[in-house]
Amino acid sequence: MGFNSESEVFYEEKFKEIADQVFVTTVDGSHGTKGFVTDILKNISYSYFFTCGPMPMFTAIEKIASTSGQFSFEERMGCGFGACMGCSCKTKYGNKRICKDGPVLEREEIVW
């Protein structure tokens, strides 16, 4: 889990209830490990990942991830029901609309 500072951390306890391990990073180092999610991801062993966040973080994770995983997109959606194609993501299966076909896509299907 990655945040700017401790005041922004949420759901840490809920994730600890369902996950074997939970790692928290804060940019300012006020909680958990100082740095970004990618700083932790490079140094741990894992069998699958789930990520939700901005596209720059997704791009960084895609470059260093060592397993399959899921990306939950936070795209702006013009219409919200798939007509405008404004929230499209390129995949191996053609463009997918985040509002209708997502928001979660598998790592292996996304064309980076």
Instruction: Give the SSE string.
Output: EHEEHEHEEEHE
Tally the beta strands: 8
Distance between the termini: 23 Å
| Uncertain runs | none
* Strand proportion: 15-25%
**Helical segment count:** 4
Given the C-alpha coordinates, what overall shape results? Answer: globular
Helix-strand category: alpha/beta
Rounded mean pLDDT score: 93
Oligomer classification = single chain
What does the largest sheet look like?
3 strands, parallel
What is the gyration radius calculated from CA atoms? 15 Å
Strand order of the largest sheet: 1-2-3
- Please give the share of residues in helix: 10-25%
Structural commentary:
This protein is α/β, with parallel strands linked by helices. Helix content is 23%, strand content 24%. The protein has 4 helices and 8 strands; from the N terminus they run E-H-E-E-H-E-H-E-E-E-H-E. The chain has helices at residues 12-18, 37-41, 55-64, 98-101, and strands at residues 2-3, 25-26, 33-34, 49-53, 69-73, 88-91, 94-97, 104-106. It has a 3-stranded parallel sheet with strand order 1-2-3, with no helix packed on it. It has a 3-stranded mixed sheet with strand order 4-5-8, with helices on one face. Helix 3 links the parallel strand 4 (49-53) and strand 5 (69-73). The longest helix is centred in the middle third of the chain and has 10 residues, at 55-64. The mean pLDDT is 93.
